[in-house]
Design brief:
Blueprint lengths: L7 E4 L20 E5 L4 E6 L4 E4 L3 E11 L16 E3 L10 H6 L8 E9 L3 E4 L4 E6 L16 E6 L14 E7 L3 E7 L4 E6 L6 E7 H5 L8 H8 L11 E3 L5 E8 L13 H5 L9 H9 L13 E3 L2 E4 L5 E4 L8 E6 L3 E7 L15 E6 L8 E4 L8 E2 L1 E2 L3 H4 L6 E4 L2 E4 L6 H11 L1 E5 L4 E6 L3 H8 L11 E8 L5 E11 L2 E6 L3 H12 L5 E4 L6 E5 L3 H6 L2 E2 L15 E6 L6 E5 L8 E5 L5 H12 L4 E3 L2 H10 L34 H9 L3 E8 L10 E4 L2 E12 L4 E9 L8 E6 L5 E8 L9 H4 L1
Parallel strand pairs: 16-23, 25-27, 28-39
Antiparallel strand pairs: 1-12, 2-10, 3-9, 4-8, 4-10, 5-7, 5-9, 6-7, 11-22, 12-21, 13-20, 13-22, 14-17, 14-21, 15-16, 16-20, 18-19, 23-24, 26-27, 28-34, 29-32, 29-33, 30-31, 31-32, 34-38, 35-36, 36-37, 37-38, 40-43, 40-45, 41-42, 41-44, 42-43, 44-45
């Protein structure tokens, strides 16, 4: 129901192209696909005639379906579905539905009534008989499995009737919504506490935005978002969900808090497009955002401007190495949005930019949609995560341990599709570092990707895909390994554990591992299944010299698997908490710190009890939570490689410092020929640098010998244990001998030099005696 809030509009279609065949145009009639993970849910708003297809082949899927009419009434029967029955809200992550359920008269605390379906051997197709909302959930009670196996991820495909546009589902109780037509602007009021959502309907469409403090306008003063102040306050080009999440006015007072952002690429430098800008490119009289903004705001007493400073949502700009402002087609997809909470009563203006003579709008201006939600709407902080550029969008989620982490810190950053703590203020990064070195730390590492490789050809596939000799890996043992492409460049790294003769678990950094394994299995016609565990197996890293002492108080193992004292470096076992009836978890002696350490993998249902038990048992040993900032310092000291730093495009496994994980005695694996060739004639090597100062060089800083650049820094930190800065760097082999003297360039690479000595890595504990203890 749209209320009667006054909305000011200005539109002029001069010099507008009406064709729909420009680069960047999306077929708005094409099916829109998204995926639901086990314990996940999604709500879709359907119009009459829309077709929703659920699943393609998901025999282990346990579905819960609910259909709501326009006023919240239940209409499952209209779809031909059986009558709904109670489903516990504890059995799936219902948080995205909380605000919407309350707004539609349902109890957001449960129970939730839905039609339950076990297993899909063919797609379930539902055609909407009327305008309605459909909720699809994958509940999983008490870690139960369907048919004794893990639950499938389910694909949803939505086809709009008549090729209609697909807007993202509403986040909660909408007070009002409207569409800003292309080449126009609309001004509107947003009240304190309300949530404003700006949606790019068709994708690649810039939307200029400005907000004024209403009380200041009433007093005759224009206090609005100031881009320079905002950049200074948030320490980046634009705010985003997380710690630095607000837009500020010139008095450094916050106006809006960014809650969700699914695009992640915007502009706060450029003016909204102007009449003068078009005139100077040969288009006098062209409609422009600045004039549209002035006209839309005039009824509110805001003075006109020739050029409006604005927040340019979805405008793709950046500063190049020569300090020029560059622009290209937008990164936004159809339905991408920015969601903000108003921190005061505001007058806002939104445009749908008319620029059709350069890439800003994908060469084809389209509409922008605006929704305003009531203050009680609960919207969690989130960004968009896509496994690949063309993959469906997933909204970032709190991890299974978030309920314990959130009271300890507000400092979270995205780790793939999860929020991960950066540091804990009670201890600080230094305190967490020393706890890991001298006692023990507990860290949420659920952002790791896990794949089960299952079947008679599992070993044969892994022999082909990985640089280690997997045939020598015993049951309940693991190894660090690499996947390389044909040129020897590292696709992914991780730890592989053998759980039985034909079952392996690969814990790695990215989804590319799953794609690569599936493609190799298909190419070689192997009898094997690669199962992406997705969010079903959250894990903790318990690291530090006291970690074994803590586990001794908790770990119970059956006699047929290794016990805690039998668990050597890279060993694995199945354990329970305290006794044979306790919480089950996979326990591995592994980690990313170079210290004695373990990783624990459990079901989502058991995540919080496992955290609580570890923290309670570790209290006497000085156990502390640890964030990503301390881990970064520790992993550099330990000489451990990171994706995007030590291994990246154009760099083979040896140049990444990972030659120890390449077994050239194997007869055949992907990339072996290139790696054998490169091993004979290496050009670059990864080394350590001891800097004789506390200045920490940035990633990519050039390394010089005299006036010639001989390499670049890959990672650097201030080492608390060594008392000075250290770095890993990739140097030409002629200058990679330990003891050599080099300079690291700063201030454009040449105006300041940091003297450094070449050393071997790791910097600390070169024989890995701590991890092997």
């Amino acid at each position: 129901m749209v209320d009667q809030t006054v909305i000011r509009t200005f539109s002029n279609m001069g010099h507008q192209r009406h064709g729909r065949n420009f680069a960047g145009f999306q077929d708005i009639g094409a099916p829109v696909a998204q995926y639901i993970e086990p314990r996940g849910c999604v709500r879709l708003s359907l119009a009459a005639g829309d077709i929703l297809q659920i699943g393609e082949h998901a025999p282990r899927a346990r579905l819960a379906l609910a259909a709501f009419g326009p006023r919240g009434g239940r209409i499952e029967a209209a779809f031909g579905l059986p009558a709904p029955s109670p489903v516990s809200l504890d059995d799936f992550d219902h948080r995205p539905l909380t605000g919407w359920l309350a707004a539609n008269g349902a109890d957001p605390t449960g129970p939730f009534h839905a039609t339950c379906i076990d297993g899909l051997t063919e797609p379930l197709v539902l055609k909407a008989p009327q305008a309605c909302d459909v909720v699809v959930a994958l509940p999983l009670s008490h870690g139960a499995l369907v048919g004794g196996q893990s639950v499938d991820t389910v694909k949803l495909s939505l086809k709009r009737a008549g090729g209609g546009r697909t807007l993202p589902p509403a986040l909660g109780d909408v007070r009002t919504e409207f569409t800003v037509s292309r080449a126009s602007a609309m001004a509107y009021e947003v009240r304190e506490g309300e949530i404003l959502q700006i949606i790019d309907v068709d994708g690649q469409q810039c939307s200029d935005f400005q907000a004024f403090r209403k009380s200041a306008l009433d007093a005759g003063t224009e206090w609005m978002i100031d881009g320079t102040t905002t950049r200074s306050m948030v320490r980046r080009a634009f705010p985003g969900p997380g710690l630095f999440d607000k837009f500020y006015d010139g008095a450094m007072k916050p106006l809006l808090q960014v809650v969700q952002d699914t695009c992640g690429r915007h502009d706060t430098f450029g003016l909204a497009c102007t009449a003068r800008g078009y005139e100077e490119r040969g288009f006098p009289g062209h409609v422009n955002c600045s004039d549209n903004i002035s006209n839309a705001l005039a009824p509110y007493g805001v003075g006109a401007r020739a050029g409006w400073p604005a927040i340019n949502f979805f405008w793709n700009t950046w500063i190049d190495p020569h300090h020029h402002l560059q622009t290209a087609e937008s990164w936004s997809r159809p339905g991408d949005y920015v969601t903000m909470r108003a921190l005061d009563d505001l007058i806002c203006v939104t445009t749908a930019c008319p620029d059709d003579i350069d890439p800003i709008n994908g060469w084809n201006p389209t509409d922008v949609h605006v929704r305003i939600y009531r203050p009680e709407t609960k919207v969690m902080q989130a960004i968009a995560y896509r496994k690949k550029e063309d993959a469906p969008m997933q909204i970032s989620q709190p991890s299974a341990f978030h309920e314990r982490l959130a009271p300890l810190t507000d400092q979270f950053a995205p780790a793939r599709d999860l929020w991960s703590p950066i540091a804990f203020p009670s201890y600080g990064t230094q305190g967490e570092y020393w706890a890991c070195r001298e006692a023990a730390t507990l860290q949420d590492m659920s952002g790791l990707r896990k794949f089960d490789v299952i079947g008679p050809d599992a070993e044969r596939l892994l022999q082909l895909a990985m640089t280690r000799d997997i045939s020598k890996l015993a049951v309940w043992r693991g190894t660090y390994a690499l996947m390389c492409d044909e040129s020897g460049e590292v696709i992914d790294d991780g730890t592989l554990f053998r759980l039985s003769d034909h079952l392996f678990r690969w814990c790695c950094g990215s989804e590319e591992s799953g794609t690569w394994l599936n493609s190799l299995a298909a190419e070689h016609d192997m009898q094997v299944r690669i199962h992406d565990l997705q969010g079903a197996l959250p894990n903790l890293a318990l690291q530090g010299p006291k970690s074994r002492d803590i586990l001794r108080k908790l770990v119970f193992t059956q006699p047929h698997v290794p016990n805690l004292d039998q668990l050597k470096w890279f060993g694995a076992t199945v354990a329970r908490l305290n006794d044979r009836e306790g919480i089950p978890f996979l326990l591995t002696r592994s980690g990313y710190t170079g210290e004695l350490g373990y990783e624990l993998f459990c079901s989502r249902d058991n995540a919080l009890p496992l955290w609580d038990a570890l923290m309670e048992a570790g209290a006497e040993f000085g156990l502390k939570p640890m964030g990503s900032a301390a881990l970064e310092t520790i992993r550099i000291e330990a000489g451990l490689a990171a994706s995007g730093a030590e291994f990246t495009a154009g760099c083979d496994a040896f140049e990444a410092g990972l030659g120890f994980a390449v077994d050239l005695r194997k007869t055949t694996f992907v990339g072996d020929a290139a790696l054998r060739r490169n091993a004979q004639s290496p050009r670059r090597a990864l080394v350590g640098l001891h800097l004789d100062c506390d200045d920490v060089p940035v990633h990519g800083a050039p390394v010089f010998k005299g006036e010639r650049q001989i390499g670049q820094v890959t990672s650097a930190t201030k080492s608390p244990m060594l008392g000075h800065a250290i770095a890993m760097a990739r140097l030409s082999v002629e200058h990679a001998t330990p003891g050599g003297l080099v300079d690291v360039g700063q201030l454009d690479g040449r105006m300041k030099r940091l003297s450094a000595t070449v050393v071997t890595v790791p910097f600390i504990d070169p024989k890995r005696e701590r991890a092997r203890a």
